Amino acid sequence: MVSLALAILVLPLLAFLVIVFVTWDYKFPSAAVAIVAIGIAMVLALLVVFPQVMAGQTDHAEISWLRLLPANAPAGGTEPFLRLGVAVDPLAAIMLVVVTVVSFLVHVYSRSYMIEHGHLDPGYSRFFAYLSLFTFSMLVVVLSNNLLFLFIGWELVGLCSYLLIGFWYDRTARRSVHLLPPWVAAKKAFITTRVGDVGFLIGLIILWNTGGTLQLSQLFEQAEAKTGPLFAASLLGQPVLFWACLCLFAGAVGKSGQFPLHVWLPDAMEGPTPVSALIHAATMVAAGVYLVARTYPLFEAVPQALSVVAVIGGFTAIFAASMGLASNDIKRVLAYSTVSQLGYMMLALGAGSLAAGMFHLFTHAFFKALLFLAAGSVIHAVGTNDITEMGGLRRFMPRTYYTMAIGSLSLAGFPLFAGFWSKDDVLAAAASRAGPILLAFGVITVFLTAFYTFRMFFLTFHGKFRGPVTAAVETVGHHPATIDAETHEAGLHESDGWMTVPLIVLAIPALLVGFWGSPLFNSGFQRFLEGSNYVETQPNLVLAVLGAVLAIAGIGAAWAWYGARAYVTEPLTRFGMAYRVLNRRYYIDEFYMWLIDKGAIGLSYAVAVFDREGLDGLVNGVASAFASGGRALRTAQTGRVQNYGLALFGGMAVIALVLVIVPLVRP
Amino acid sequence: MLASNDPFTTFVGTLAFWISAIASIAAAYMMVARIKNLIRAALALTTVLGGVALMYALLGADFLAVAQLVVYVGAIMVLIIFAIFMTPGQIDVPGLVGTGQRLGAMAVAIGVGAISVWVVVITPWKVRDSLLDIPTAESLGGLMLTRYVLPFEIASLLLTVALIGAIVIARED
Amino acid sequence: MEFLIPGLRHFLVLGSILFALGMYGVLSRRNAIGILLNIELMLNGVNLLFVAFARYLSSEQELAGQMFAIFIITQAAAEAAVGLAIIIAIYRQRRTIQVDQLDLMKG
């Protein structure tokens, strides 16, 4: 089965290479290559690998990549090799399905999304090349059973994220609601995740130096033994493994946009919407969660680390949800929502339930991708991201409307939809292990999530269209239509099949996939994932009901404020200062800029001054010392023979003096 | 003369020495520090040269005394005076340099002179016993062709080269 | 009264004085020929020293000091000839033989 996994892994890479070297100048063929490649991969994953794993088969294989000099071999290691390897087990199989399915649907969707006003985007081939490369990188992360190999994929994923966010690199800030031009947002994303990646790398180094290996199976053995070099006491009395886990988690914090490294996700929305759907909803940001899940035995061996994970996750959940309330950009709201839901996943993992965290990741991938793609459909039709300029779209885009409704209900946790089951699992895990405060955060966030999601939904689709007349942009293949002056409903069309079919396809799991993990189906998902580690738990009815009630209440509140009334001014502004703080994202961006300005730039300025004055001064000083010394000595060169003669005879006199005096002083 | 047993000869010699010595030093001093006119300076030098020739005679170097007079006074001084005539307009220009140089020169000269005199006076010279005055020409000639033949040949070469060189350099072309 | 009778030391002192006076003159005259004059004075002082040593210190047949003196006189002659030739040539070029104006090698 490893060969199949490798085939799945390599297909997107091949697509990338083919697009770059063969079909670069041909737009639609490039799209075709990518779509076909990922389609085959998806089929292989869904219909071959997944069933096999479900039947209980697992497999793995490694190769030795680099042989190190004996002096560099790790302390406790078995042999001086750096290895790369893949493994296929339930966890990997689930992610495999998620990545290939969502990636395939996004590829199909992009075929039409990247066409504006009937013109193909000039970077059409480049887009599909990057998408394929990204898929490959993500699959490396998923399939790897060696932390080094995973890190390689991790970095590649970061690169692709940068390339795709900054895809429209020659655009300045697009529209009024957006604040950063795409290339700046890409840099911000890359650098912020880099901060986390440094932590990740440090964690790798710690593990390599103390554990002697980066092979997950061997690390797990050491962790389970609860003794050994990994458990030697280190800073603050904690074992080495604790710090290693914390460092690895730092990488996850960066990639998954947890507080305090969440700042890049909202601005990453500058990228094309398919990118947001694939990368920043379903897959890349889930990589952080996946990392913790993959290395879970390590975390379980140091429960303090899990506590840290839970705290950060729980806090991020409510923190991001609060910011989602005050955003008017349809994609931004979804971005905050993503951060918040990732917080849920981290909370579940930190509370000791691998299954709950992964289950929520699984459902979230589908409904969030759906929501993003639907939002993209809306943006493509209306021409703006600003929900205050939308409204009443339900009449013109019925397929988008209904699919987005399904996605929103799932996100909000409306009973029976996929998100309801997984969110409930998370809350149950939090209740049992995470302490009251974090549980309260999680519960409050349910309400907030429902509220802001449906605020967005109602403002977009209900009421009357508030956009300017000229905002009626053509959709795919649409010609400029005459404007109906009375109702201002000019030329707003549903998107074409290439975009709406993926929406419909995604709506199905968004609705139904939750059942697989629900008590109704005997928690099949959780059993499959955890295998022998699965612990039977009683479903927490109180929490389930509470969750359902809060979700419905949130939707109701949103309806009352946004659905039923015409939107003239933002009702939330009555909260004045609080609203402004939320709208400006708690001014964290400003704070970071201030830090960098004082810190990094101040430091570099100091170094520059040191270099200029100190080092250059030293070098120049040496030179000028020589120069002035030379100038001083030159005065002895008068050119007059008599002066020279005086020096000559004077020297002779001194020698004579010495010759005479020395024998007297010292006979 | 100074080694003679005859007291009169010794007296004459002593007198001759002192007169000559004082004259030489006075002339030298005048030439160095007081005389500005070049021709007069050259004449003062000639006086010194004559005094030195007398010293040679007192020291029993008869050949050398005559050679001194013939070569130095007769040839070299004439040469110098010719040169002075050939570079006119320079004679009446004051011939002293800047203060620093002069003071340095004075210090060095006094220093060297003082050291030399002091060393000479202090050192216990081992003077040889017999100080006969005998004619030196024959001995000098013999030495020149046996022991000192190399410097002799080189000196002749030197003179040839100097002759040719001086002609070449001073030629008007 | 014995010190009045000239002995080795007298001659040596005389020679040294002449040498020192010559040295001062070399270093303080401005005219090139004047410098040459003083050089001759120095050479003579040295000659005197040599001859005095020859007389009082060396053995009967040695006379090394006098040989020295002869060769020094020879050399002085050659040097005066060439030196004066050079001075004349410089005079023709620059119309001056004041050594403080001949400072092309300055710096």
What does the model show?
The complex is a heterotrimer of chains A (667), B (173) and C (107). With 667 residues, chain A is mainly α. Chain A has helices spanning 2-21, 27-54, 90-113, 124-143, 147-165, 182-211, 216-225, 240-255, 264-267, 273-282, 284-294, 296-301, 303-325, 330-350, 354-382, 398-412, 418-433, 436-461, 497-512, 524-530, 541-563, 577-583, 588-634, 641-665, and strands at residues 59-67, 81-88, 115-116, 119-120. In chain A, 68% of the residues lie in helices and 3% in strands. In chain A, the strands form two sheets. Chain A has a two-stranded antiparallel ribbon with strand order 1-2. Chain A has a two-stranded antiparallel sheet with strand order 3-4. In chain A, helix 3 runs antiparallel to helix 10 and helix 5 (147-165) packs antiparallel against helix 6 (182-211). Residues 469-490 of chain A have low confidence and may be disordered. Chain B has six helices and no strands. The radius of gyration of chain B is 20 Å and the shape is globular. By secondary structure, chain C is an all-alpha fold. Chain C is 72% helix and 0% strand. The model of chain C has no long low-confidence stretch (mean pLDDT 88). Chains in contact: A-B, A-C, B-C. At the B-C interface, helix 1, helix 2, helix 3, helix 4 and helix 5 of B face helix 1, helix 2 and helix 3 of C.
Brief description of this entry?
Chain B is mostly helical and about 170 residues long. Helices cover about 75% and strands about 0% of the residues of chain B. The mean pLDDT of chain B is about 85.
List keywords for this structure.
heterotrimer, A: 667 residues, mainly alpha, two-stranded antiparallel sheet, two-stranded antiparallel ribbon, 4 strands, C: 107 residues, 3 helices, 72% helix, elongated
SSE pattern of chain B, N- to C-terminal:
HHHHHH
Q: What structural class results from the helix and strand content of chain A?
A: mainly alpha
* N-to-C CA distance of chain B: 54 Å
End-to-end Cα distance of chain A, whole Å, is: 101 Å
Q: What is the percent of helical residues of chain A? A: 55-70%
Which regions of chain A are unreliable across 5 or more consecutive residues at pLDDT < 50? 469-490
Q: Determine the oligomeric state from the structure.
A: heterotrimer
Number of DSSP strands of chain A? Answer: 4
Task: For the largest sheet of chain A, list the strands in their spatial order.
Answer: 1-2
The two chains with the largest interface, and their residue counts, are: B-C, 91 and 76 residues
